Amino acid sequence: MTATLPIAPSAVCWITRTLEDAGFETWAVGGAIRDALLGRPSGDWDLATRATPKEVRRIFRRTVPIGIEHGTVGVLARDGTMYEVTTFRRDVETDGRHAVVVFAETIEEDLGRRDFTINAMAWHALREVFCDPYGGAADLDDHVLRTVGRPDERFREDFLRILRALRFAGRFELRIEPDTWHSLRGLVDRLPVLSPERVREELLKVLGQDPAPARSLELYAESGALAVVYPELDAVRSDGGWARSLATIERLPPARPLTRLAALLRPLLEERAAALLVRMRLSNAVTDEVARLASASPLPGPQAPDAEFRRWLARYGASRLGRVARIELAEARAREHEASGAGGSRGPAPTEVVESWRRARAVLRTSPPLAVSDLAIDGRDLMRLGLRPGPGFGLILEGLLDWVLEDPSRNETSGLGARAIELATIVAEDGGREGSGDG
Question: Which uninterrupted H or E stretch holds 86?
Fold first, then answer.
């Protein structure tokens, strides 16, 4: 098994050697070890050591106190890369959300508190010794995910491990061991004790780290976790929208997790998608952006007149064109695959989406006015025309924009002024009708 483990980066060897020369046993741990055994590019290298945070900060000149309360110090290598160095720990008390830990003396104690066997392995970068007390390497060979120790105990220590199990099993194509699966399913109703932020980050990791996130999300559904943490999405499963959504996000790159999230939410009604995003506690800006992407209408068809493209761009924004088009293209490819051999599919074909996207870009290159701020006149010009400021000004300006979207050549002062007078009369008449009544 040691032959499959890579040579650790020179910075990891340097940190290990520095700590060991000072008398502190140090091991490389975490995802880099697991990924190396899977033959995948090794990710971040983390280290576990017998040195306390205070001792680590005394030994190294450049450190960052990124998690002192949890025993973690960031050590900066010569090239500026930061490596997390954490003191050996063991749990003494847990409440399902957070653990109270104390420092431990050995790597075996530290590995014993970890969630799954595939994450409970360590590699000594200098001695090239592999430490695997719970058989994680064998489980990887057998494509099995199991907990370290009894599943119920491990999940009750931190219920987030339920979602982590679904993510790891999906991402690495592992079969969840029966006792682990049974325990996991029996405890999904405890997921609401977790903070929305922790639940959200798990989903974003599924969407942002896995080229094929459908496997993990199917496990979310099969385990019952989806119904607990994202009931809006679980409701979509009954009408077939879920399978299409999964097929769509698989055709979007993991480098765009928020675009994938928007695609996942597209089958929802706008208000249900918004409620889910608010509950995820994303920033207001991100919530608004994802909601707009999720609720955007399809691009006009390739044969539509330019005015339809201008109206679409005015409504959803030129900056969103690429992301919406990518989602639509992924949806079209998913439909095409779904319908192969079934006599065609409803909705535009991928080639039509591409052509619509080209048409929209061509319209944009003409720099058309797409917002009120792009009009050749503004509120001050309306006052110069003798119009009285008030709520009607907004309606007049929106009306002018709609008029200009139909024909951008109309965006000139005199024509807009005349049209504004006409619209002011209409607005005044409509206001009078709305204010009248029989009591």
Answer: strand 82-87
Helix then strand count (H, E) for the chain reads 22, 11
Q: For the segment 307-356, what is each residue's pLDDT rounded down to a tens digit?
A: 999 999 999 999 999 999 999 999 999 999 887 755 455 789 999 999 99
- Indicate the residue type of 357: W
The amino acid sitting at 417 is G
Instruction: Collapse the DSSP code of 398 into the 3-class scheme (helix H, G, I; strand E, B; otherwise coil) and give the result.
Output: helix
Query: What is the per-residue pLDDT across 355-375, written as a single tens digit (0 to 9) for each?
Result: 999 999 999 999 999 999 999
For the beta carbon of residue 305, count every other beta carbon within 10 angstroms: 11
Residues 6+ apart with CB under 8 A from 188: 162, 223, 224, 225, 228
- 367: three-class secondary structure by DSSP: coil
The secondary structure of 119-161 as a DSSP string is: GS-EEETTTTEEE-TT-HHHHHHTTEE-BSS-HHHHHHHBTHH
Q: In this predicted model, what pLDDT tens digit does every residue of 377-395 receive, in sequence order?
A: 999 999 999 998 888 899 9
335-340: long-range contacts at Cβ-Cβ below 8 A with a sequence spacing of 24 or more?
335/244, 337/247, 338/243, 338/244, 338/247
Taking only the tens place, the pLDDT of each residue in 252-261 is: 999 999 999 9
CB-neighbour burial class of residue 380 (10 A; exposed 0-12, middle 13-18, buried 19+): exposed
- Decide: residue 51, CB within 10 A, 0-12 exposed, 13-18 middle, 19+ buried: buried
Residues 6+ apart with CB under 8 A from 50: 24, 25, 26, 87, 88, 105, 106
Residue with tokens 């004790």: 193
Question: How far is CA 439 from its chain centroid?
Answer: 53
Distance between CA atoms of residues 340 and 4, nearest Å:
41
